[in-house]
Amino acid sequence: MDIQAEQLNYLYMPDTPFEQLALNGIDVRFSDRQWTTVLGRTGSGKSTFVQHLNGLVKPTGGALSLKGMRITRATKQRTLVPLRKKVGMVFQFPEQQLFAEEVLEDVMYGPLNVGYTKAEARELAIHALSVTGMDEALFHRSPFELSGGQMRRVAIAGIMAMDPELLILDEPTAGLDPESHRSMMAMFYDWYQAKEERGVVLVTHQMQDAAAFSDEILVLHQGALVLKGSPQTVFARDDVLKRCSLTPPIGTRLVKAAAEKFGMPDQSTQLSLTPTDTADAILALLNKRAEGTKYDV
């Protein structure tokens, strides 16, 4: 099933002196069973856009269709409850939402809140804590006695325990060290791969994550959709990325710099989205240079 935005607009504080257009006429269609990454600078409308996907906010103009629902300005909040069972959202610093006395109790809250029995909620919570790498010995500890990284995993388990079909990740690794970042992104990818009907929408400033995980990328700029396509398509558009103050992944930039240094700029069109891609591309450039094609360093 697809997610479709039709002339989607969103105004903050409408009809006041502080009115601000956050989303401006977005028309886009993409699958809810793929990994979609939303890129853009701060203030581009990324978070506002994804908050529409589980009904946290409603359009002030246009419509959004997903999971069998069509959401407009007139949609009643109570009708969005079924959508929130299917679409989970992980915010920046989700550990700030912890509240219960015990880890297991906190993770059970979400399933209980959407209608699961206590036994079902417990089973879902235990599974989600396992997925997020939490040791059973911590289940009855206070979440506030845990490390920052463990607290974040507990909060994420609380979303995963509701077994959503679509998981929205709004900069979920903000503030983590590089190793914790890699571990958490791998965890999300494992969750996504575990069931065919699952999808992920990731908001990030990390170009390498966009390159490594995405099936499709959306680029927002000043509230408008300016680019949509595969990582290969998006990161080939230097002109659009520059206008949006975005840079391609470091591997792509390294290959381009090497090609220009070797006097082979026509070879820099090969996109290098992973370390292996980068190594292969630079090795190919070195081989071409060794063959005696024109070049002095």
Query: Count the helices. How many?
Result: 11
Computed structural class: alpha/beta
User: Percent helix among the residues?
Assistant: 25-40%
Strand order across the biggest sheet? 6-7-8-3-9-10
Could you tell me the number of beta strands?
A: 10
What's the SSE pattern?
EEEHEEHEHHHEHEHEEHHHH
The whole-angstrom Rg is 22 Å
**Mean pLDDT, rounded to whole units?**
92
- The percent range for strand residues is 15-25%
Largest sheet: 6 strands, mixed
Q: Residue ranges: pLDDT <50 for 5 or more in a row?
A: none
Coarse morphology? globular
Distance between the ends: 52 Å
Enzyme class: translocase
Domain ABC transporter: 3-247
GO molecular function: ATP binding; ATP hydrolysis activity; ATPase-coupled transmembrane transporter activity; cobalt ion transmembrane transporter activity
Family: Belongs to the ABC transporter superfamily. Energy-coupling factor EcfA family.
Explain what the structure shows.
This protein is of the alpha/beta class and 297 residues long. The chain has a domain at 249-292. It is 38% helix and 21% strand. Strands 6-7-8-3-9-10 form a 6-stranded mixed beta sheet. It has a 4-stranded antiparallel beta sheet with strand order 2-1-4-5, with no helix packed on it. Helix 4 crosses helix 5. It is globular, with a radius of gyration of 22 Å. The mean pLDDT is 92.
How are the SSEs ordered, and which strands pair?
Layout: E1 2-12, E2 20-31, E3 35-39, H1 46-51, E4 61-66, E5 69-71, H2 81-86, E6 87-90, H3 103-113, H4 118-131, H5 148-160, E7 166-170, H6 178-194, E8 199-203, H7 207-213, E9 216-221, E10 224-229, H8 231-235, H9 238-243, H10 250-261, H11 275-290
Parallel strand pairs: 3-8, 3-9, 6-7, 7-8
Antiparallel strand pairs: 1-2, 1-4, 4-5, 9-10
Helix pairs in contact: 3-4, 3-5, 4-5, 10-11
